[in-house]
Amino acid sequence: MGKVPNSFATIDSGMVFKTEDDSLRKFFGQENKDMFVSFINCIHPDDKDIFRGALEELKAKTMPKNIVMVRLISSDKEYCWAVVTMSYKFHALDGEEIFHLHINDPDDDTELKLKDDKNEYSTFLGMMNGILFSYDVDSKQLSVFILNGGQQLSLFSGPLENWKENMLDGKLDKEYEASFLGFCRDLEMKRTSFSYSIRTSSFSNDNKMEQCTFKAQLVSGYNGEKILGCITSMENQTTEHSNFEYTRDIGMPVLNKKSITDYAKRAMTASGNKVCLVVLDLDNFKVVNDTLGHMVGDEVLIRTAEIIKAALGNLGVLGRIGGDEMMIVFPQVESETELRNTMRTIRTNIEWEYKDKYKNVQVTCSMGAAVYPDNGKSYDEIFSLADKMLYIAKSKGKNRYVIYVPEIHGTILNPEQKSTEDVIKKVQGNKNGIMQQLVEQFLVRHTMTYEQMITSVGNCFNLDEIVLVYGERLANSSISIWNHDGYNSGVSDSAYSSPEPEFLESFDNNNMLVINAISGLEGKTKVLYNKLKGNSVESVLFYKFSETSKYKGYMVFSKLSRRQMWSEQDKVLLATVGKIVELSLL
């Protein structure tokens, strides 16, 4: 079997070649003609679905790049194995999606050597005091960052125009504004090489004006044309330390408390981006130290930091703020979905890393989050909210995250609350008031979405999962599930949509079925019992829609890993929630 050349190509969303290099043309026997063919037709029939699936994941933006191994047919009609690295780059000017392909022979170690070289250069650059930048010529996106201890600390990421506006808003010496505009103009004009001396306060921790050199160089490669460069302070070249500096924690491969705090504050003032603070705490860490010793505890801290940094990639920066408590800064929040996905990955990876690793000790993590400027106008406000969300996550059973939502948490927090107990008491108290708010805002005024309403109920009643099942025919039901991973509608699950008739006949005159211990459900519906048991549900309360309702269905209110007697108040109020939802469907 032959070998594929190390080569590059771009394809559109229909997998038709847009560009390709000469080595790939030669491999396919197309060196003298335009390749107006589909890349999928160059793949072995058994491997086509593998490639299609990987491309669909990129189209859905579930990952920045994807790697597959497929067989490609050569000009000699021979199939050769190839490693194809795919990445979504940008929308072309006509709105067409473009995907880049990097093709390598599986046995070629060139990629490994390049990766080693990249790691070496990254290490060297990380030792420099200079700030680095990258400007994508096609998308006009600018990224300004520092490499520090293996982490990329983003100072700005977004359109060049936004950065220009931000810099001109009081961060430049007036005499140097023309020079700065010249620098931006050279970026846009793709000048090959240029350098400017500019006086700015943007790169000083104490916001003092300092003379900086901006150096840039145009480079071309597989990912298109970029202008790369660095920004160095001329005033600090003769001093031992730069004013703009972040320091690593003594015991962990992360930033220390002062540095992560400074970075968070800078991220909040450096651009118009949304910035998220996540306060993270390891569950049961004291038990690890007390029973297994501080040496094992230190190993857990270091390994946990590595897991978090791997999950973050370049999306966020990690620092230690005390003991086993850490803080993550997301300097540019693109969407709540991306934020939730990253936090879910962190939580899950830590849980599985230590699942059954230590006898009688399960290490997990809890997280609280808040977003600037949506939830507050200062670092202190955002940190306080994130910290209180961490308290809520701890109180609800640990191993979960809570993101501050004003519609849900706004009524339970106030500036005077200082203690964990105050927050927990507010979260789990005042249920009648919460119910009145739901009726008014969700059912009457329609100012609250179903997701917001159901999340509020889950937090107020300390629930772990709420399921809604409804439809004109139960077998064809719409299903939505809320839990601490978020809200998911359009779920398909026959265990919920096709319960046994004995289950539907077990509800009382108030259309309720209360199960204090999950074993009490086994005799009523084997399928649903197995489903809930598999989800670690221990206590559950059902509300069934009335027989006269247009829709058939029911709601499930669940608590995981703990049995409890449902109070009369909770029964009445959760039945009210079920009725509110039923009325909203009519």
Number of DSSP-assigned strands = 22
The radius of gyration over CA amounts to: 28 Å
The unreliable regions are 90-94, 238-243
Beta-strand proportion: 25-35%
Give the overall average pLDDT: 81
Helix content: 25-40%
**How would a crystallographer describe the biggest sheet?**
6 strands, antiparallel
- Lateral strand order in the biggest sheet: 8-7-6-11-10-9
Secondary structural class: alpha+beta
The first-to-last residue Cα distance is: 65 Å
The shape, in one word, is globular
Tally of contiguous helical segments = 18
Q: Would you write up a description of this structure?
A:
- The protein has helices spanning 22-28, 48-59, 110-126, 160-168, 177-188, 257-270, 285-292, 294-312, 336-353, 379-395, 406-409, 420-428, 431-444, 450-460, 494-497, 501-504, 526-534, 568-585, and strands at residues 7-12, 17-20, 65-73, 79-91, 97-104, 131-136, 141-148, 151-159, 193-200, 210-221, 224-233, 275-283, 317-322, 325-330, 364-372, 401-403, 465-471, 478-483, 486-491, 512-515, 537-544, 552-560.
- It has a six-stranded antiparallel beta sheet with strand order 8-7-6-11-10-9. Strands 19-18-17-22-21-20 form a six-stranded antiparallel beta sheet, with helices on both faces.
- With 586 residues, it is of the alpha+beta class.
- Mean pLDDT is 81; it is low at 90-94 and 238-243.
- α7 packs antiparallel against α8 and α8 runs antiparallel to α9 (336-353).
What is the topological layout?
Elements: E1 7-12, E2 17-20, H1 22-28, H2 48-59, E3 65-73, E4 79-91, E5 97-104, H3 110-126, E6 131-136, E7 141-148, E8 151-159, H4 160-168, H5 177-188, E9 193-200, E10 210-221, E11 224-233, H6 257-270, E12 275-283, H7 285-292, H8 294-312, E13 317-322, E14 325-330, H9 336-353, E15 364-372, H10 379-395, E16 401-403, H11 406-409, H12 420-428, H13 431-444, H14 450-460, E17 465-471, E18 478-483, E19 486-491, H15 494-497, H16 501-504, E20 512-515, H17 526-534, E21 537-544, E22 552-560, H18 568-585
Parallel strand pairs: 15-16
Antiparallel strand pairs: 1-2, 1-5, 3-4, 4-5, 6-7, 6-11, 7-8, 9-10, 10-11, 12-14, 12-15, 13-14, 17-18, 17-22, 18-19, 20-21, 21-22
